[in-house]
Amino acid sequence: MHSNQPQSQQGSILRVLQSKDETRAYYDKISAVYDLLAEHSEGPVRQAGLDKLALAPGECVLEIGFGTGHCLVQIARAVGPKGKVFGIDLSEGMRAQAQNRLEKEHLIDRAELSCGDATHLPYPDSTMDAVFMSFTLELFDTPEIPKVLAESKRVLRTGGRIGVVAITREGKDSLAVEAYEWTHRHFPNLLDCRPIFVRRALEDAGFSITDATIAHMWVPVEIVVAEKH
Q1: What global pTM score does this model have?
Q2: How many beta carbons lie within 10 A of that of residue 158, not counting itself?
Q3: Which value, in Å, is the radius of gyration of the alpha carbons in the chain?
C-alpha cells in the first residue's frame, strides 16, 4: 500500500487492477444480464443496508453505483412525490437499464440519473439528506476510496446519513475471502472488486458510525450507516 494512505486502510487490501475505461466497458457489456449474475446473492444484503438507512418522505437521496436500478425504485418510493433520488454510475449501459426500470414503475419523474465518476460528484455542497452505495465502494482503487467518501460528505447536509454495503476484509481470514482475492489477482477482468474495510474507511473520512454489522453471502459483507456532523 502507498504510505500516504490512512493506516487503517493499508492492512492487506488489494489494489484495483482494471482501469476506469475497462471497468466501464465491462459493466456496459454485462448490464443486460447483471441481475441474472448477481441479484440472487446481492439483493437481500443490499436490502438490509437500505432498510438501515431509514429513508423518509421528502428527502433528497443519492445512490452511487446504482447498477440496474433496483434500489433507485425503492428510494423513489420511500421519498415520495416531494422527494428526489439522484443516481450516478460509471456505466451508460447500467444507466439505460435503470432508466427503463424507473419508467416501468412510473417513477422516472422523481429521479435524475447521471453517468460519471464518484471521485468528482456533480452535485452542490450540502444538498443530500442521504447517500447510499452497495457493492460499489470496493470497485474503487485504494487511493480513491477516501476521495469518494470525502465527496459523499461534501454533498451531504449536516446530520445527513451515508449507508455503505460492501465486501469486507474485517474478521478472520476465510477460504472464501482467500479464493475471492486470488481470483481478483489473476482474473481482474472477471472479478474487478475486492474486500475492503468499510467502517474504518468511514471513520477515517470523519463520519460518525451509527450502525455496523457483518452479514454473509458466500463472502462476508459489511453493512454500515454513519452520519455527517
Answers
A1: 0.89
A2: 8
A3: 16
